[in-house]
Amino acid sequence: MTPLKPLAGLDPQHLLNKKSTYCNPHSFVDVDRLSLHYGEKSAFRDVTLSINKGCITALVGPSGCGKTSFLTCLNRLTDLTAGCHVSGRIMIGTIDVLAHGTNVIQLRRRIGMIFQKPNPFPLSIRRNLEFPLREHGMRDRAQLGTAIETSLRDVGLWDEVKDRLDSPALALSGGQQQRLCIARSLALSPEMLLMDEPCSALDPLSSGVVEDLIISLRGRYTILIVTHNLAQARRISDYAALFWVQNGAGQLVEAGPATQIFEEPRDPLTIAYVNGMRG
Amino acid sequence: MIKTVSRLQNPREWLAFIFVWGTAGFVTATFCWLLGDILWHGLSHISWTFLTAPPENAGRRGGIGPILVSTALILGVCLAVSLPIGIGTAVLLAEFTSNQNLFGRMTRRSLDVLAGVPSIVFGLFGNVFFCKTLGLGFSILSGGLTLACMVLPILIRSTEEGFRAVPASYRLSAAALGLSHTTTLVHLLLPAAIPGLLVGLVLGVGRAIAETAALIFTSGYVDRMPESLLDSGRALSIHIFDLSMNVSGGDANAYASALVLVVLLLLINGTASWLATYGLHRKIVTV
């Protein structure tokens, strides 16, 4: 794995032009008729969707239509919520995610997740990265040091924090904390990243930096990102899917290449949504 | 522009002012009076000999050496038993049972009731169960175990609160990184819950070290230096009680012993808050 160039050296326009260069039209995740209920309440129903390897797929739609719940099905974080029932089928590579025998620890190691609010552990910057690595079996000091540096370079944070790795992670700015969380996921060498509105809790400048970072990860990781920011979805995604509440539950309205969803949508709801008339 | 009106122009504000400051002043003054009285009468009797020598003439003369040792042993037994059980139960209640869970609800309710049970009841229970049924007799072990029963409800509930105060996002992000429940518990939740644990410990130890009723029936009156945990030993609070109620002419030493007890309590409180800030809490670094 070669470390990416630091972010400072990347020209966002250059990145945008490279859109879809790495993106591979092979499906990596296959979701078939997935439904999720919290007790009696249905969060979303009968979602069938394919997510292509190495691409950025954006999930868009109004609040409460089940986008985040959909995300948490893919790494079985739904297991932590009492009364949450998932049905349907999810295949990620060769793993049957919802099957009983699936090793959830291994699954979550392969699929990183970034939350809306940056949530580094209340440990030092170094321990934030080292702790999960150690738990997954990396004990060698030199190896740990390299992994920490590589992942921090990947998110463009190395030059900002290399002299204060032992200071508290919570002392970093919001944008830096979010990049640290991304680095923490990347350190485990995942194949896929689930991002739940990773920029929405950040100021516009930090948001821009994180957005550039996400673009720079295209090709190396399959990224599924939930966003409320249509302009952002348009800027970064290769594929997009629109969720909408219909008959009391979230449903997938339309999915396809980003150019199709944003330039020539077919469904009337999508047309209204991307043109800013609904949602 | 808003005109600044002195709050005290209104008679009702005056009443509230007098009430609030008056009650606060009353509480503080009571504590100062107690402390001043103990210091005034007790300080002149404190010496190294007093702290180490055995009591003579039923405690009228001599020191409190064996009594300090007994007190420390009783407290040691109490902590050695209550800490592991307390943390274990708190983890079970906070991390493995939901609020709706019947078992969890029953356990919490029982603990809340137990926390309010008068200490004399614990004393009689300890006498019947530890001294007689288990055959431990009047001993430091019986006393320590009885105190553990008394301290546990407070310790468990406040440790549980400590766990619940840890933000849910720690658990979610730990799970999303593929960390096991045990790892998350030991390395993340436990250090973050330590302030709650310490609060429970201070409240519990404070109650235990000052306890008289529960110990009279379990650890006994004997003021000799204990030779084992199965020996009877007199705790500091019982010594004070005995000197002031049963021994005429024991007031001076009762005051001095009370002063030692108050200083011990303050030391324990101070150590706990120091630990919360610098010691055990160091693994978790917040801003």
Write the layout of secondary structure elements.
The complex is a heterodimer of chains A (279) and B (287).
Chain A: H1 12-17, E1 27-38, E2 41-52, E3 56-60, H2 67-74, E4 84-92, E5 95-96, H3 104-110, E6 111-114, H4 125-135, H5 141-154, H6 158-161, H7 174-186, E7 192-196, H8 204-216, E8 222-226, H9 230-236, E9 239-246, E10 249-257, H10 258-263, H11 268-274
Parallel strand pairs in A: 3-8, 3-9, 6-7, 7-8
Antiparallel strand pairs in A: 1-2, 1-4, 4-5, 9-10
Helix pairs in contact in A: 4-7, 5-7, 7-8
Chain B: H1 11-42, H2 48-52, E1 55-56, E2 61-62, H3 65-96, H4 102-115, H5 119-133, H6 140-164, H7 168-176, H8 181-209, H9 213-216, H10 236-245, H11 251-277
Antiparallel strand pairs in B: 1-2
Outline the structure in words.
The complex is a heterodimer of chains A (279) and B (287). Chain A has a 6-stranded mixed beta sheet, with helices on both faces. Chain A has a 4-stranded antiparallel beta sheet with strand order 2-1-4-5, with helices on one face. Chain A has a single domain (7-12, 27-204, 212-274), classed as Rossmann fold (3-Layer(aba) Sandwich). Chain A starts with 11 loop residues before the first helix and ends in a 5-residue tail after the last helix. Chain A contains 11 helices and 10 strands. Chain A has helices at residues 12-17, 67-74, 104-110, 125-135, 141-154, 158-161, 174-186, 204-216, 230-236, 258-263, 268-274, and strands at residues 27-38, 41-52, 56-60, 84-92, 95-96, 111-114, 192-196, 222-226, 239-246, 249-257. Chain B has 287 residues and is mainly α. Helix content of chain B is 70%, strand content 1%. Chain B has 11 helices and 2 strands. In chain B, strands 1-2 form a two-stranded antiparallel ribbon. In chain B, a hairpin with a 4-residue loop joins strand 1 (55-56) and strand 2 (61-62). The model of chain B has no long low-confidence stretch (mean pLDDT 88). The interface between A and B is medium-sized, with 32 and 23 residues.
